[in-house]
């Protein structure tokens, strides 16, 4: 009898808790910093980054208050379960293992890859015809390697490097015509450090999913379907009204590929 | 031939790692490794013969530079030499505009240069040691016949010294084959490069490297066999009478 009572009480408390969570005017979002340019601190200590600004914009769109909770990566999903926060927005890749534990929003971002070539290169776009016989540099075993090997392995010569540094060095030396890199890595090593010596060739590439994955999603507890739905709707609105593109351009220096 | 291909694709039908695609990578890797090792050994051998004779010269200005060369190339790791020749030279201003760049642009030639210089240094020392160890009696006998230094070198010392150097040189050939595994750091798709590619692509380190180890073992076996044959023929006079 006593046992039954305590189970009922516990159940009631849980239901009350859930109701409270979905009715709340403010939610907390867990984030692991730093991971530039997605989430990091300004010298003043303030949190910023693509995730943070997009998260704030989403909350504003939904009309709720958002509070960021900093949490180390290894405890970030347990923290969500333990109700230390109600969502995770921390460059979390959507994958089947995590899907079993949490509820993901629609993907809001896929880390883009891009082609980089010397500024005076005649290559204007990366297609089979334009890359024929060229020397392509990739980092061995990366998704860029797989993509380039499958698409251009039969027409171009693909050089595989152990590190991105070796590859950049070889492009400076003139041994490579073009490299395929994570966009943020290429931006920081090639575009930012050398004064106008390199250019991005063509659009940023985030598809097909077979190579580039499902992208990043916002994670919720499985029962908070309402909340996830609100975020998905807000995300769609921000993508439509241009807010998303503006943020993307702010952090990656280029508009996302138009769809 | 077509039957062979059909049989091969049947055998590989349900194998995720060793499909036709990855086997071509291994095949190309085998060609690159054999090419690189064979060429560097041949050129290294051609360089080492005169160098080993000059290394024993009485003149300081001939002897010392060669000693310095072998000392430097035996005293530094091959990987460091490869890095310097491949990545280092590009920092020489204007090298991209000279005819040298035609060779330096490809990873093959810098790697060939590094391997050749390295094996030539070791081979020079192996031959030099063998020349020094020539039995005094043979030299005295040659002198007693009134042979000039040159003739003695050609007829007596070099033939016997190089025969005696054979087992040590066989080791050097095997070491060179194994040392060539570092070629993949300068983007050459050699055997190890192919294994690394397959490993990174299918996350199958054990399969990828076990397979490539088996290929290296086969190559080593062929080298061993060749040198055993050569020793049997050329060192027949040294074998104990059974």
TrEMBL record, chain A:
<comment type="similarity">
    <text>Belongs to the bacterial solute-binding protein 3 family.</text>
</comment>
<dbReference type="InterPro" id="IPR001638">
    <property type="entry name" value="Solute-binding_3/MltF_N"/>
</dbReference>
<dbReference type="GO" id="GO:0030313">
    <property type="term" value="C:cell envelope"/>
</dbReference>
<dbReference type="GO" id="GO:0015276">
    <property type="term" value="F:ligand-gated monoatomic ion channel activity"/>
</dbReference>
<dbReference type="Pfam" id="PF00497">
    <property type="entry name" value="SBP_bac_3"/>
</dbReference>
<dbReference type="InterPro" id="IPR001320">
    <property type="entry name" value="Iontro_rcpt_C"/>
</dbReference>
<keyword id="KW-0732">Signal</keyword>
<protein>
    <submittedName>
        <fullName>Amino acid ABC transporter substrate-binding protein, PAAT family (TC 3.A.1.3.-)</fullName>
    </submittedName>
</protein>
<dbReference type="GO" id="GO:0016020">
    <property type="term" value="C:membrane"/>
</dbReference>
<feature type="domain" description="Ionotropic glutamate receptor C-terminal">
    <location>
        <begin position="28"/>
        <end position="254"/>
    </location>
</feature>
<dbReference type="InterPro" id="IPR018313">
    <property type="entry name" value="SBP_3_CS"/>
</dbReference>
<feature type="signal peptide">
    <location>
        <begin position="1"/>
        <end position="21"/>
    </location>
</feature>
<feature type="domain" description="Solute-binding protein family 3/N-terminal">
    <location>
        <begin position="26"/>
        <end position="255"/>
    </location>
</feature>
Automatic annotation (TrEMBL), chain B:
<feature type="domain" description="ABC transmembrane type-1">
    <location>
        <begin position="30"/>
        <end position="227"/>
    </location>
</feature>
<keyword id="KW-0812">Transmembrane</keyword>
<keyword id="KW-1003">Cell membrane</keyword>
<dbReference type="InterPro" id="IPR043429">
    <property type="entry name" value="ArtM/GltK/GlnP/TcyL/YhdX-like"/>
</dbReference>
<dbReference type="InterPro" id="IPR010065">
    <property type="entry name" value="AA_ABC_transptr_permease_3TM"/>
</dbReference>
<dbReference type="InterPro" id="IPR035906">
    <property type="entry name" value="MetI-like_sf"/>
</dbReference>
<dbReference type="GO" id="GO:0006865">
    <property type="term" value="P:amino acid transport"/>
</dbReference>
<protein>
    <recommendedName>
        <fullName>Arginine ABC transporter permease protein ArtM</fullName>
    </recommendedName>
</protein>
<comment type="similarity">
    <text>Belongs to the binding-protein-dependent transport system permease family. HisMQ subfamily.</text>
</comment>
<keyword id="KW-0029">Amino-acid transport</keyword>
<dbReference type="Pfam" id="PF00528">
    <property type="entry name" value="BPD_transp_1"/>
</dbReference>
<keyword id="KW-0997">Cell inner membrane</keyword>
<feature type="transmembrane region" description="Helical">
    <location>
        <begin position="208"/>
        <end position="227"/>
    </location>
</feature>
<feature type="transmembrane region" description="Helical">
    <location>
        <begin position="66"/>
        <end position="88"/>
    </location>
</feature>
<dbReference type="InterPro" id="IPR000515">
    <property type="entry name" value="MetI-like"/>
</dbReference>
<keyword id="KW-0813">Transport</keyword>
<feature type="transmembrane region" description="Helical">
    <location>
        <begin position="108"/>
        <end position="127"/>
    </location>
</feature>
<dbReference type="GO" id="GO:0043190">
    <property type="term" value="C:ATP-binding cassette (ABC) transporter complex"/>
</dbReference>
<keyword id="KW-1133">Transmembrane helix</keyword>
<feature type="transmembrane region" description="Helical">
    <location>
        <begin position="33"/>
        <end position="54"/>
    </location>
</feature>
<keyword id="KW-0472">Membrane</keyword>
<feature type="transmembrane region" description="Helical">
    <location>
        <begin position="173"/>
        <end position="196"/>
    </location>
</feature>
């Amino acid at each position: 009898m006593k046992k039954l009572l305590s189970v009922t009480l516990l159940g009631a408390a849980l239901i009350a808790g859930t109701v409270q969570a979905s009715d709340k005017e403010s939610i907390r979002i867990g984030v692991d910093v730093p991971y530039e340019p997605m989430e990091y601190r300004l010298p003043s200590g303030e949190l910023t980054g693509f995730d943070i600004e997009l998260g704030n914009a989403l909350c504003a769109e939904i009309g709720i208050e958002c509070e960021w909770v900093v949490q180390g990566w290894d405890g970030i999903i347990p923290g969500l379960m333990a109700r230390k926060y109600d969502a995770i927005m921390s460059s979390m890749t959507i994958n089947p293992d995590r899907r079993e534990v949490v509820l993901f929003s629609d993907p809001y971002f896929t880390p883009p890859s891009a082609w980089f070539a010397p500024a005076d290169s005649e290559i204007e776009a990366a297609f089979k015809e334009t890359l024929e016989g060229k020397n392509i540099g990739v980092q061995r075993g990366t998704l860029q390697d797989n993509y380039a090997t499958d698409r251009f392995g039969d027409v171009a010569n693909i050089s595989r490097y152990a590190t991105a540094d070796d590859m950049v060095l070889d492009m400076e030396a003139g041994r490579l015509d073009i490299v395929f890199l994570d966009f943020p890595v290429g931006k920081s090593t090639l575009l930012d450090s050398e004064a106008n010596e390199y250019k991005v060739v063509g659009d940023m590439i985030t598809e097909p999913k077979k190579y580039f994955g499902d992208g990043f999603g916002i994670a919720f507890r499985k029962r908070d379907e309402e909340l996830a739905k609100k975020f998905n709707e807000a995300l769609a609105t921000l993508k439509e009204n241009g807010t998303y593109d503006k943020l993307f351009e702010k952090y990656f220096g280029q508009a996302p590929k138009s769809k | 031939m077509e039957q062979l291909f059909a049989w091969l694709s049947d055998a590989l039908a349900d194998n995720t790692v060793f499909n036709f695609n990855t086997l071509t990578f291994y095949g190309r890797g085998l060609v690159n490794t054999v090419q690189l090792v064979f060429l560097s050994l041949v050129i290294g051998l051609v360089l080492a013969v005169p160098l080993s004779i000059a290394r024993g010269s009485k003149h300081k200005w001939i002897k010392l530079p060669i000693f310095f060369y072998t000392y430097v190339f035996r005293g530094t790791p091959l990987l460091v030499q490869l890095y310097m020749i491949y990545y280092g030279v590009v920092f020489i201003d204007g090298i991209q505009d000279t005819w040298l760049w035609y060779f330096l642009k490809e990873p093959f030639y810098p790697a060939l240069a590094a391997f050749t210089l390295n094996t030539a240094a070791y081979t020079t020392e192996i031959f030099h040691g063998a020349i020094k160890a020539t039995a005094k009696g043979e030299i005295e006998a040659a002198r007693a016949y009134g042979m000039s230094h040159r003739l003695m070198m050609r007829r007596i010392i070099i033939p016997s010294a190089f025969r005696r150097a054979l087992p040590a040189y066989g080791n050097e050939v095997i070491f060179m084959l194994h040392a060539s595994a570092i070629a993949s750091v300068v983007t050459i798709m050699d055997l190890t490069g192919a294994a690394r590619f397959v490993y990174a692509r299918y996350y199958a380190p054990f399969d990828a490297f076990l397979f490539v180890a088996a290929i290296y073992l086969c190559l080593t076996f062929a080298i061993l066999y060749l040198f055993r044959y050569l020793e049997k023929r050329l060192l027949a006079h040294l074998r104990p009478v059974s």
